[in-house]
Amino acid sequence: MKEHLSRVVLRSGETAAGAIVAMLKESSHKDSGHSLLWTLFPESDHNRDFLYREDGGSGRYLVLSARRPRDDVGLWDIETKPFQPQLRNGDRLAFALRADATVAIKEGTRHRGRRTGLVEYTRSSHEWARLDRAQRNLLECQAAREWQRSRLARNGADLDPSALEVDIEAARRIRTSTGKGFSFNPISFRGQLRVRDAEPFRALLSNGLGRAKAYGFGMILVRRPVSAD
């Protein structure tokens, strides 16, 4: 499947600013980035077929999409190139991911478990109240590392545990189009991996990892690691 990787930047100036304000007032979505990114895909039937993430702030985003983004309302500067990663089994890659990490909790006879945030689940453990701050941080990081390891393993890649950096952010609340909302702790991962099976790993890059993908989470960035030579 042909895909596009784009760097998009919100334009400055009175005309663009006025259009942005009007659009956000009309939008049913309460997350500004979420609302604005949809304008790049005006023919959408509301089935999201793109991933995005902030690219340094100030209205800058990276977008991975099945369709080529276009700007019909004069809001964006867009640079687009084909996304065609050449992956082979055994490749070593550096990666970065900002994710809404969740786990499935089995309840009764339900076939599928109830989804809950990884950080929330970790903090609900029976030992949490007895731990000091350092021990709690260690427990959260261990849970996050195992989540990342297991999700990559399911999708054709092996994590290098010695190179993984984990940053658990403060809780964030997002309001949805229904007026309801949800809270979670975004987790940023940076590290290295080895591709074990290129086909499912390539699919993972297209599909993203974790929840809240419509709100700028789950897009995995990869590159060849810098040689130590």
What's the structural domain tally? Answer: 2
CATH architecture descriptor text of the largest domain: 2-Layer Sandwich
* CATH superfamily heading of the largest domain: Crispr-associated protein, domain 2
Q: Note the gap between the termini.
A: 36 Å
Topology:
Blueprint: E1 4-10, H1 14-26, H2 32-37, E2 50-57, E3 60-65, E4 76-82, E5 92-99, E6 102-105, E7 114-117, H3 118-123, H4 133-154, E8 157-159, E9 165-168, E10 172-175, E11 181-184, E12 187-195, H5 198-207, E13 220-223
Antiparallel strand pairs: 1-3, 1-4, 2-3, 5-12, 5-13, 6-7, 8-12, 9-12, 10-11
Can you describe what's shown?
The chain is of the alpha+beta class and 229 residues long. The chain has 2 domains: 4-82, 2-Layer Sandwich (Alpha-Beta Plaits); 92-223, 2-Layer Sandwich (Alpha-Beta Plaits), CATH 3.30.70.1210. The protein is built from 5 helices and 13 strands. Residues 24-30 have low confidence and may be disordered.
